[in-house]
Amino acid sequence: MSFTKITEQSSNYNHLEKMSVQELLTNINSEDKSIPLAVEKIIPSIEKLVIAIVESMQKGGRLFYVGAGTSGRLGILDASECPPTFGVPHNMVIGIIAGGDTAIRKAVEFAEDSTSQCWKDLKEYNINNNDTVIGIAASGTTPYVIAGLEKCNENNILTGCITCNNNSPLGKVAKHPLEVIVGPEFVTGSSRMKAGTAQKLVLNMISTSVMIQLGKIKGNKMVDMQLSNNKLVDRGTKMIMEELNISEQEANKLLLKHQSVRKAINNFNNGN
Questions:
Q1: Chain-centre distance for alpha carbon 25
Q2: How far apart (Å, rounded) are the C-alpha atoms in residues 171 and 141?
Q3: CATH topology of domain 6-213
Q4: Helix 194-213 to helix 69-86 angle, to the nearest 10 degrees?
Q5: Catalytic residue list
Q6: What is the pTM of this model?
Q7: Which residues, including other chains, have CB under 8 Å from residue 37's CB and lie 6 or more apart?
Q8: 75, 152, 202, 229 — which has fewest CB within 10 A?
Q9: Domain assignments of the chain as residue spans, ordered by start
Q10: Which are the contacts of 5, defined by CB distance < 8 A and separation ≥ 6?
Q11: Handedness of CA 179, 152, 106, 78 (dihedral sign)
C-alpha cells in the first residue's frame, strides 16, 4: 500500500485486559469524543455531495449505498429508515451489502474481495445515470466497493464514498470522497468502533439533509412519516393538533382518514 492505513494503526492504549470496567468505558468514551470533530472538518465535502445527490434525485434518481461487513450494514440501516421517517418508497434509498442479505447477520467469506459482484448487484436494480452510488469502507481498500464505483464512473453515474483513511484507493475512485479521519481504534483495527460511528454520523447527515431539501420535512416535523405503529399515530395526532389548533379526537380522526400528517393538514385547510 502506498498510503498509511490509519484504521489499522496500533491503539493509543495497551493492556486492555488489565483495565477495570470503568477504565474501559472511560477510555472508549474519551476516544469517541473525537469523532464529531473529525466529521466537522469535512462538512464542505459533505455539502457538495448532498447538493449533487439532490439534483440527481430531483430528476428521478435514487441513492445507493454499497459496502461490506459493518460498512454495508450501516448503509442498509440508513436506507431502511428512510421510508418510515420520510414516507419515501423503499426503492428510493437502497443499501447493498457484499454477500447479499445473508451477510447482514452472518459474515460471508471473501464476499468483499469480488471485483465483479458489486456492479452485478447494482444492475439488478437497473442502475442508471440519474442515480447516485456511495461506497462505504472504513479502510478505503475493499475490492467489492472500489470495483463497483469504477464501473459507475464508466457509466456516468454520480459516485461518493465514506472512508476513514486519507488518499485511499476508494477515495481516489469516488468523485466525491468523504474522508473522516478518526485515528486508531481503541481495540486495534476494530473499525466497527470509531470508524463505524463516524460513518453513521455522515450517513445521518446525508440522508436527512437530502430529504429535507426534497421537501420531506415541514418546520421540524416528519409530516410524511409512515404510520407504522401506535407511537407514530400518537405523534402524528399531536402534530396535527399543534398545527391546526384542534382537539385530539378531531386530529386523530383526520389522521386515520388521510393516513398522512401532511395530507390531513392540507385537506383540512382546503375544507375537505
A1: 26
A2: 9
A3: Rossmann fold (3.40.50)
A4: 30
A5: 81, 112
A6: 0.94
A7: none
A8: 229
A9: 6-213, 230-269
A10: 139, 141, 165
A11: positive
Interacting residues of 50 by C-beta distance below 8 A, sequence separation 6+? 205, 206, 209, 210, 213
* Cβ 33 vs Cβ 211: under 8 Å: no
User: Cell numbers of 91, please?
Assistant: 426503492
Which tens digit of pLDDT belongs to each residue from 38-76?
A: 999 999 999 999 999 999 999 999 999 999 999 999 999
In angstroms, the CA 29 to CA 98 distance is 30
Convert the pLDDT of each residue in 200-251 to its tens digit: 999 999 999 999 999 999 999 999 999 989 999 999 999 999 999 999 999 9
Alpha-carbon span 194 to 130, nearest angstrom: 33
Phi, psi of 36 (to 5 degrees): -60, -30
Q: DSSP letters of the chain?
A: --S--GGGSPPS---GGGS-HHHHHHHHHHHHTTHHHHHHTTHHHHHHHHHHHHHHHTTT--EEEEESHHHHHHHHHHHHHHHHHH---TTTEEEEETT-THHHHSPPTTGGG-SSHHHHHHHTTT--TT-EEEEE-SSS--HHHHHHHHHHHHTT-EEEEEESSTT-HHHHH-SEEEE----S-SSTT-TTTHHHHHHHHHHHHHHHHHHHHTT--BTTB-TT----SHHHHHHHHHHHHHHHT--HHHHHHHHHHHSSHHHHHHHHHTT-
Query: Any idea which residue has 418510515 for its cell?
Result: 84
| Rg of the chain over all Cα atoms, to the nearest angstrom | 21
What burial letters (b/e) apply to 185-220, b meaning 16+ CB within 10 Å?
Answer: bbeebbbbbbbbbbbbbbbebbbbbbbebbebbeee
Query: Residue 105 has which C-alpha cell?
Result: 447477520
Which residue's C-alpha cell is 478518526? 182
Question: How long, in residues, is the chain?
Answer: 272
Contact 142, 71 (CB under 8 A): yes
